[in-house]
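Work Package 4 report. The design task specified in the project plan requires that, given a folded chain encoded as structure tokens, an amino acid be chosen for each position. We show below one input record used in the internal validation round.
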């Protein structure tokens, strides 16, 4: 409120020093900058809210199954048990080997993994709590039946 009053009182001074056209340009520029700041602030708040939502989703998951580097990193940050597959550019494999191979709750599945080994791993993780100690009631033993079935059908 105080800054608006000061601006109102300074208008005659501004118009004495600068022309009306320059004043209009400055006013338009100031208004656009204020609108841009509002948009940036709101989008930042939305992004933070989205990030917090995703972190909560990961931390409440019983198991994270991913072939994405960011999925593996977020699982690590949140302490979520993760089964990680490699992708085409081997980014996941190299990052896992360089940084996360000693982390108990992140498990990298190599190309030579059998269906039985994968099924045992999923079963083991399904009966384990999140590393941070948060047990999720969202996952049932049947949650991974389709995934296990897909591996068995495709003989991956």
């Amino acid at each position: 409120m105080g800054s608006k009053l000061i601006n109102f009182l300074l208008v005659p001074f501004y118009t004495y020093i600068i022309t009306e056209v320059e004043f209009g340009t400055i006013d338009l520029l100031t208004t656009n900058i204020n609108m841009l700041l509002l948009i940036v602030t709101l989008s930042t708040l939305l992004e933070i809210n989205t990030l917090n939502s995703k972190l909560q989703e990961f931390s409440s998951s019983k198991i994270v199954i991913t072939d994405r580097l960011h999925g593996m990193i977020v699982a690590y940050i949140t302490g979520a048990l993760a089964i990680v597959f490699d992708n085409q550019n081997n980014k996941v494999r190299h990052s896992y080997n360089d940084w996360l191979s000693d982390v108990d709750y992140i498990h990298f599945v190599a190309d030579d993994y059998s269906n039985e080994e994968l099924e045992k791993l999923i079963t083991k993780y399904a009966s384990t709590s999140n590393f941070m100690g948060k047990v999720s009631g969202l996952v049932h033993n049947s949650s991974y039946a389709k995934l296990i079935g897909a591996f068995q059908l495709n003989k991956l």
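The chain has two domains: 2-53, 62-154. Validation will be extended to a larger panel in the next phase.
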